[in-house]
Design goal:
mainly beta; five-stranded antiparallel beta sheet; 1 helix; 49% strand
Length: 621
């Protein structure tokens, strides 16, 4: 804390001035001038002490017509807000929505732990394992492509979404100015399963050259819920009855599938092991009597993130990475730099978290950090360092701010910057911290934490190295976009529509496309409680005067309180609105070992400086 030199007079009266006010230090070591507790304070104008500004309400959670729409999770991307909602009308299920779309996508009736993970200009929705093209702006919807409306030439370029049947579930059509033309799929499933019949394994060609045992042809499709593509690593089952040893994972090199249901898949030379003929040599063709299944799969992961054009994730003690540039493929292993990658780690303890940080995929156990070095799949190497890692179940605490990584460990909050994490015991004390939910704008780290049973928003400002504490608005989700952090609340701002759930903006102007933001109602309630003032002396002491330089905006009020030796709070003075000025508060001296000062405010106030005048007694008096 920044203090000016103390002045001591002959009558043992000492005056101490303070002109800088820091962040939270909720520990027994909190000393003169440090803040032991607070509510709704900010270091935005550091070294001045002041409350946060009013938050903006991006979505008050107003009922859509007659029906409730309980938001489950939110995701913001390039000014567009996405959410998953539960409808309580006749639909009675969950839907994925976008402010730029004119339709919702059905997610069924089962509640799930939905997560959004960005990958370039697309976003992955889990646990559906859908890759959604978020850059598209859907202008309208038609139930089928035959019901698309006729538009004008001026409407050229408009996109309409339709409902299709598997594997084309949500096809997008583009109006050329004169007709509708199929453009692409809005949603690409990362997994698919194709069941085919009338299968034959034969010799064939690849890239125009003759090849042996590399072709699978079929005459019928029993089911198909996705489109295969060249380069897919697919798991093939159902061949071993007639061609033993051929159930495997193989990579599609060429393909052709007709609308009539027949097709051909070409794999690498000698991909299949052909049965021996009567002459003792491998046959050139074998017919498979049953149904053959081809699947492209993605592992069910405990956590996932994007790094350097790959998706990375973990399950138990195993680390996975998708193929370079292709988040749909996790089973392509050719010895190439672009391959997918997987490693089962051997050290004790499951992986508890992961993040892209410092230019490396970074993973944690509870007692260590794992970094993946190398730029290509055939050069990846791991390095594991013993250190406090992420506490099990607290992977949502991980976020980076100001080149530092913050997370919750078994030993409390940690800040990792270079060689070893720094514990934040001096900020949080020894209380239990749990249920962390964090997000960052790159400079400030916001986390909803439960500390010793009390929920609140804690904010770390990397520019000043300070922790500040806000109130608990009921945050259950957070997402960052374009310089602001949106928070999903567990309730609506409108009391009678509690279940609809609001979205507030923690640091910006609350703007979401299609909704006009409103400012938080009422004045911000705040307080600053300083730690024990001892003047660095073990003797008894008494404070006779408190001087504050403060400014209060219109409608603001501030109450100054004091307590001695852990007793009850006593009101000293109440200030109302006024320009920046110094206020002298006389105090009836009372001998004590230590005392505390508390400032309680409503509305916007600022503390520029504080001076305390006290005199020192003896060890007893």
């Amino acid at each position: 804390m920044s203090k000016l030199p103390s002045m001591r007079y002959e009558d043992r009266i000492k005056k101490t001035a303070q002109v800088a006010f820091g962040g939270l230090r909720h520990s027994l070591s909190c000393s003169d001038g440090e803040l032991y507790d607070m509510k709704n304070l900010t270091c935005k104008e550091y070294p001045i002490l002041q409350p946060r500004e009013k938050r903006w309400i991006a979505d008050a959670g107003v009922k859509d017509g007659r029906y409730e729409q309980t938001k489950q999770v939110i995701y913001a991307d390039n000014g567009n807000m996405w959410d998953v909602v539960l409808w309580t009308d006749w639909r009675g299920g969950y839907e994925l929505r976008s402010r730029k779309w004119k339709i919702s996508v059905n997610l069924g009736r089962e509640k799930k732990d939905w997560k959004f993970i960005r990958f370039g200009d697309r976003v992955l929705l889990l646990p559906e394992k859908w890759l959604i093209k978020t850059a598209l702006e859907i202008d309208g919807y038609a139930p089928t492509n035959t019901e698309l409306p006729t538009l004008t030439e001026a409407d050229a370029g408009k996109l309409y979404l339709t409902s299709g049947t598997a594997p084309s579930i949500y096809p997008v059509y583009r109006w050329t100015g004169t007709k509708w033309q199929y453009q692409e799929e809005l949603i690409e499933p990362l997994e698919y399963k194709i069941r085919v019949t009338g299968v034959k394994l034969t010799d064939g060609t690849i890239y125009g050259e003759k090849a042996t045992a590399n072709t699978l042809t079929f005459t019928g499709i029993s089911s198909m819920d996705g489109y295969p593509a060249v380069g897919d690593g697919v798991e093939i089952t159902g061949l071993s009855t007639d061609a033993p040893g051929n159930d495997k994972i193989a990579i599609i090199r060429e393909l052709r599938i007709s609308t009539s249901g027949n097709g051909k898949l070409v794999f690498s030379d000698n991909c299949f092991k052909m049965p021996l003929g009567t002459d003792g040599n491998p046959v050139t063709s074998v017919t498979i009597s049953g149904t053959v299944t081809l699947k492209r799969t993605m592992p069910d992961l405990d956590g996932i993130f994007e790094h350097d054009n790959r998706l990375w994730g973990w399950k138990g003690k195993t680390i996975y990475a998708s193929k370079l540039g292709d988040p749909k493929n996790w089973n392509v292993f050719e010895g190439l730099s672009t391959d997918a990658w997987a490693l089962e780690t051997q050290r004790k303890g499951e992986i508890t978290g992961g993040v892209s940080f410092g230019g490396y995929p970074t993973f944690f156990r509870e007692d260590s950090m794992i970094r993946i070095y190398g730029a290509t799949a055939n050069a990846f190497q791991t390095s594991e360092i013993a250190m406090p890692g992420v506490k099990k179940g607290e992977q949502n605490s991980i976020a980076a701010a100001g080149g530092m990584l913050l997370y919750l460990s078994r030993d409390g909050m940690m800040i990792y910057a270079d060689e070893y994490p720094r514990a934040q015991d001096s900020v949080f004390g020894n209380g239990e911290i749990k249920d962390a939910l964090a997000c960052s704008d790159g400079v400030r780290y916001y986390a909803r934490l439960t500390v010793d049973g009390e929920k609140a928003i804690y904010r770390y400002d990397s520019k000043h190295g300070l922790w500040m504490k806000e109130d608990d608005p009921g945050v259950i989700g957070m997402t960052y976009d374009q310089g602001t952090i949106y928070a999903l609340l567990e309730h609506s701002i409108v009391p009678e529509q509690y279940e609809n759930r609001a979205i507030i903006d923690l640091i910006g102007n609350g703007k979401i496309e299609g909704i006009e933001p409103t400012e938080e109602a009422g004045s911000v309630e705040s307080f600053a409680e300083f730690g024990d003032f001892t003047a660095g002396s073990l003797n008894r002491k008494a404070m006779s005067k408190l001087q504050l330089r403060m400014g209060l905006e219109t409608g603001a009020t501030v109450t100054i309180k004091i307590k001695y030796d852990g007793g009850e709070w006593e009101t000293l003075w109440t200030l109302t609105q006024g320009i920046k000025r110094s206020v002298q508060i006389p105090i009836l001296p009372r001998r004590c070992d230590y005392y505390r000062i508390r400032i309680e405010g409503t509305g916007m106030w600022r503390l520029y400086a504080m001076a305390r005048e006290q005199y020192e007694g003896s060890e007893i008096h």
